[in-house]
Amino acid sequence: MAERELTRRGERGHEANRSAATLLDAVLNSYSQIFFSPNRMVGAILLGASFVAPVSGAFGLLAVLVALGTAKAFRFSQETAGLGLLSYNALLVGLGIGALYEPTFTTLGLLMVAAFFSVLATAALNSALGVTFNLPSLTLPFLVVFYLVTALALLVVGVDANAWHYNSTLEGEWLWHPLASYLKSMGAIFFLPRVDAGLFLVIALLVYSRIGFILSLMGFAVAYPVSLYLVAVPDASLHLMMGYNLILVAVALGGVWFVPRFTSFLFALGGVLIGAILTIGGRALLDRMGLSLLILPFNLTVIPMLYAMRQRTRDGSPKAVDFGMGTPEQNLNYFQTRMARFGYLYYVQFSLPVLGRWVCTQGNDGPHTHKGYWRHGFDFEVQDSTGSVYKGSGRRPEDFHCYRLPVIASADGTVAKVLDGITDNAIGEMNMKDNFGNVVILYHGVGLYSMVAHLAPGSIKVKLGEVVKEGDVLGLCGNSGRSPVPHVHFQLQGTARVGAPTIEAAFHEAIVVAEDKEVLHARYIPEEGDVLRNIDTEEDFGRLLRFDIGTEHEYRFKRFSLNRVERIESKIDLYGNLKLTSEHPEGVLYFENKDRTFVIYDYQGPNRSALSVLNLALPRVPLESGRNLVWKDHLVPRYFYPLPGRILRDLVSPFLGLGGVKMEYRMERTMRSLTVHGESLEKMKGGASVLKTVAILSDRNGLESAIVEVKGKTMSLERIDPEIGDNPEESK
Known about the structure:
Largest sheet: 23 strands, mixed
Structural class: alpha+beta
Number of strands: 25
Low-confidence stretches: 164-170, 728-732
Distance between the termini: 37 Å
Helix content: 25-40%
Shape: globular
Oligomer: single chain
């Protein structure tokens, strides 16, 4: 009985510690969401900034706790609450009340009601804007609640204005005026227009993002001269309001919702100029109503600009962040790596529209029909072992190896056009009236359609409006239309019209077949004479790289003198992204086990983690074990820089190319295991590869071990079998 009681006490203590840690994370994330991202260190710095004025800091913290309690009591998503997404508006409400009003019991009661209401307003606006328009609510909930608070303060007895708040703006007279103004503008985000508070926020911004810091300077560089020299009546409070509004506009548009590149910086600059106009005009309008401008220009600038850019027929410059948002550096690294590794032109990936091996008989700018507006097209046929595309005399369509073979959907889509009933031609003849013959056109997204043409009459398997999946059979290869011999024509286009001009196209995860090896390409534009195929997925292969949600595995990680056990857990986040996480040290690796490939998209964490080894050794693995199959990949350069180099590169990365390490991988399959070898294309002076990797996967345990050698230095991970255990001596 005593042992059971001790066990229960231990479990209760462990649960209490976990609850306290969860609450602490939620509190700190509430603060860091001011800079658009959950980050405990940033949150801790901002928490400290708020206590530059103790009453204001206490009111802000109390508001966060009330908001988190409300979210739990009303059973809102605890994952959302844990990220601070339901409580950062309450934080601003609390900071505002603490800064502007005397600390009385009445003020305290008003604070608690306002924090409670801010959670409901945040949830409602998140749903309304997010579901209907796919837009963030930003700080609109704070504005709604705080305007009500300021109106109530005029009528409620016991809520008195705090006069010292405005006098604090006089601090920093000894500093260079633009620097003092910048720091005060940063502090004013927390209702603390003071140099000391602003310094805290600048430090937090630098920890959060170096690119974000540069963008903040850009926003302030517009706000400072406009507010001082272009406004007819100089106003210290307008100067500060324009400063922090334009700083947040620049960071949001230049690095958070758009990938930070030169075009995004220009776009953010345009937003900053719009924000300046809204600040001046809004101040004149709201003064008549007795309301403060607060952070309204930021919301009125960012939300409409986001919505306007989402009406584009094609995402481009600036490139929207259409993946899980992170810091500006993470957004840029993810995008650059995605382009280098996969070359995505569009948000849809296209596979070859055929099954088995086919030869490209006409590619882009082909000699026959792929010219001018229709230059981005591909024709495919089937060759035999002798290189012939037909058997016998080749005088009948039936003699051609590709005739009446299945033609499949290259990607998920909806049938937008079906044209059938056009007869096949005799060999050598062409139907110039019905140029494309029998066709199926699929809709994949705004301004993105695929068309397969020259299908056999009566062979089309789909109907108008039908939803199809990648790999579904659309019809059979024929010889209809302008087609002298049976073949499949494929193109991408911007409308559903038959014969519309083509747009640039490429195939993803395509294998180019040669005599000595088969090369898998993440993105490939076929040329005439190329023999190609899709990955031939093996049903049991995917199990080697399955990380089922909720499972935990322990690995022994070694790096130089470091030797420790690391626990890795498989999870799914709020946005549906699969991830592997490690708590000690903290790291997150995002992955996907797709139909044809296992792909690691991004790793966020230190190099001293088992996840960093996995990221380098298995960034992308095709789910088939062809003996001669090789593939190339591209590893992010920042993983190979020491910390000072990483910081420097972050500052200049929006204006530079990717760089990084180009890798070539191959695999060896045995009866019960698979070994994946990787080697960098870059060599050292002696001829050895800069980077070498080996990963071993087994049918029983999945990932068994991995070794990474960087310039002769090795780090490794090895799975600890729970049935056998692990007893090596650990060192810190």
